[in-house]
Amino acid sequence: MISLVFFGSFQHYSTLTLQKLLDSKKLIINAVITTPPRPGNHGIVTKTHTHLFCEQNNIPVFPLENLDSIPTEIEKPDFIFVSGFGKLLNENWLNFPKIMAINAHQSLLPTYAGRFPTQWAILKGEKKTGVTLIKMSPQFDKGEILIQSKINILPTDTSNTLYTKLYDLSAKLFINIAPTIDKIIPTPQSGSGFYARQLTKADGYITNFDNLNKLTRALNPWPGVWTYVTDKNNKKLILKILSIDKNNQPENVLIQGKKPTKWSEISKYYSLTS
């Protein structure tokens, strides 16, 4: 059977890919590399979703902060497969597998290279996106293309639903090409495209309720869509838009210091402010 070392730490999406790989019954997972536990909500140190999944399924897992050296316990695999890891692998790791180190990127490279391809595809109004498997290189998202597969972006798709589809597709593509990888001729990337830079809280700030459809689909839950409002006492507060109605106007909202509520029930008490 084909063996691999899997790299993943992106919320539950990396775990989704790993689960699909295991379900195929065609692969042996020698080890999983993920990031170390980090402080989460309320400062509680939390393991990655992938880390917890591995512990529950008796898969050897290595939460590594430093990738300078390869743990001696890990048996040399046929492949390294990276799906949502967010760190560059050095030459030691790239040369470690017997066959190849492969990365799954959730866009049709070279367009939307970067850390937030799915959110940016929605924000830019794309009708299609996809997955690109590349032969890894020492640079992010610059490797030669092994295979690409497209999917439609539906009007109802959010960053969550798209990521779910794309991480599922990533596993399927790897399972399909791994047995016949020797028949694939890697293709260098040509041209360039929009770079999907990291999003910040500032990207979710709005001054009006235009374009809420794209914004809420792309930016919720992080970094979220928000603005400032003032109440009847002229107090400035943060308004978070949790969802929109059929007219693409705020529906469920969260006012700073209060519980979630319907915008239609409270809008008369607040006004937008800059």
TrEMBL record:
Gene Ontology MF term list: methionyl-tRNA formyltransferase activity
InterPro entries named in the record: Formyl_transf_N, Formyl_transf_N_sf
Organism the protein comes from: Candidatus Shapirobacteria bacterium CG2_30_35_20
Lineage top rank: taxon: Bacteria
Official protein name in the record: Formyl transferase N-terminal domain-containing protein
Pfam family for this entry, one: Formyl_trans_N
Domain Formyl transferase N-terminal stretches: 73-176
PANTHER family per record: METHIONYL-TRNA FORMYLTRANSFERASE, METHIONYL-TRNA FORMYLTRANSFERASE, MITOCHONDRIAL
Single GO cellular component term: cytosol
